[in-house]
Amino acid sequence: MGTAFLLLSVFLACAVEAVEALTIVLAVGITRGWRPALQGVAAGLLLLAVVVAALGPALTVLPLKALRLVVGGLLLTFGLQWIRKAILRASGYKDLRDEAAAYRRQIAAAEQATATKKPLVDDWYAFTLSFKGVTLEGLEVAFIALTFGANQHDIPLAALAAVAAVLVVAAAGAVLKAPLARVPENTMKFAVGVMLTGFGIFWGAEGAGADWPGGDAALPVVVAYVLAVATAATWLLRRRRAA
Q: What is the pTM of this model?
């Protein structure tokens, strides 16, 4: 059960980040040219590979309780941020993220920017924008994969789920050559926020010395509780806004 939740959480979280990176790369590639855009993607992936190679082995040598306490706290903080934004969007207090609108904004900005040539790069603006998009979103992918994998002592499995999510999104973008506007990104963020928060509570408590009734079987119960609280908060805010 823990492995299934791990794979699902990593896949969904990484897919969300990949969709946002895809929107940036598509806008740059179509507007400014694919060569500098793909050069930026390659540079970003290279940097991420270095980060993963450096941090992955370091995480595996930490004592399990200390690792779970640290990772649980980080996931809890990260997950609560996702849930907060998802609840505000679902209740109408925050605009839903629109990938099509984000794509149009990126297109407009790319069309207005001037091209500057650098060694090996014909368009520095296109290169740096793609690089930043891949790096920033990719760091979140790496963080999720490393923390989940290290805590379960199975970084390769978590990495496989992350790579699968990125490849699925990249393949869809290559075929459609358009932002994935129909992907229920806000719903996915809500689900990921619930899962990250649930894992954070579960692992953080174990790291602090608590013993869950039933061991790993308690994890789905914790996630279900977080989902119930988040759903109730959304319902209450919707009623408040309607009133």
A: 0.69
